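Weekly structure sync, notes
Attendees: PL, DS, HV (note-taker this week)

Item 1: DUF397 domain-containing protein
DS walked through the input record. Source organism listed as Actinacidiphila epipremni. Sequence as pasted into the shared doc:
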Amino acid sequence: MPDITWEAPFCQDASNCFRLGTDPDGNAYIAVQGEEEHYLTDSLDALRALVAGIKAGKADHLL
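Item 1 (cont.): predicted structure, written out as tokens:
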């Protein structure tokens, strides 16, 4: 497993928590809290684009 530094969980409510993480090689990770061994990974640039898109409302149609 990569050397991932996980951020504190982001939770909508007690049952919907996600964690973002990074490693020393510049990769970004997203996982469900408690399931960090099953993560999605991409570059830090891709994570920045994802967060910026969500903040801009590009995922609102999913809600």
